[in-house]
Amino acid sequence: MAAERAPLPERFERPSWLTQVLIALFVLFLLWSMSSAGLSLSELLKGLPNMAVIGGEMMPPATDRAWPVAQAILVTFQMALVGTVFGILLSIPMALLAARNTSPHAAVRHATRALISFFRTVPDLAWALFFVASVGLGTFAGTLTIIVDTIGFCARFFAEALEEVDPGPSEALASIGASPLDRMAVVLLPGALPSLINSSLFSLEKAVRSSVVLGLVGAGGIGAELAVSMEMFRYDQAATIVLMIFLLVFVVEQFSSHMRRRLMRQNA
């Protein structure tokens, strides 16, 4: 007698009534949001000829200001690099205060995490406007913005990386009388180092892209050149700037990807 076959499991588990209600509410809210966002196919079709005209005026890209634009690109990268490095250096002590296994007290941990969340929640442009109003126009305001933004990004992931380190070696050192600083230097930071480097490389990519936008509000860099070109309807110059921005971002992303691949091979 052939053994009875067990019934096949359902492909998808039937959601509960509460889940179905939440999904329906989400769909309704999405439809409402689409109407509030002003999505309009007719307006898009009406704007396509204008896009074609602007695209035609961008070709060929202008080269009359290639050298000043290249200098502005270099300043943009320098601003992103300096802001990222200082932001990473400041993120490490904040992460040590925010991580559960390194923070000296729960109140300190919660306060530090709240500060990190505040840095991350406020948009880049808001920080840029704040620093432009505080220290004036220029790259210093942009660098300060990138520092704060990098802290909000890196400190959170640094803290999580520290919490994921195997507690065994740290507890063994504590049992023989090692101080918390010794355990941080010998076990926790080296154990979390691959994740710290990975987050740092991502933050550099993010800073390069952010630094382009910061120039639009007077925080220095290539964004100011792009804004002036668009305002003067010099779309050929704008095309040159966009191509140089693409080249900068592409080079930084390729370098970051190469370093991450090397890091993964070393840890394999």
TrEMBL record:
Gene3D superfamilies recorded: MetI-like
SUPFAM superfamilies referenced in this protein's UniProt entry, alphabetically: MetI-like
Residues annotated as transmembrane: 66-90, 125-148, 184-204, 211-232, 238-256
Membrane topology of this protein: Multi-pass membrane protein
Residues annotated as domain ABC transmembrane type-1: 73-256
Keyword set, alphabetical order: Cell membrane, Membrane, Transmembrane, Transmembrane helix, Transport
Domain of life: Bacteria
UniProt signal peptide: none
Classification via Pfam families: BPD_transp_1
Compartment(s) of residence: Cell membrane
Family: Belongs to the binding-protein-dependent transport system permease family.
Protein's name in the database: Phosphonate ABC transporter, permease protein PhnE
Record organism: Stutzerimonas azotifigens
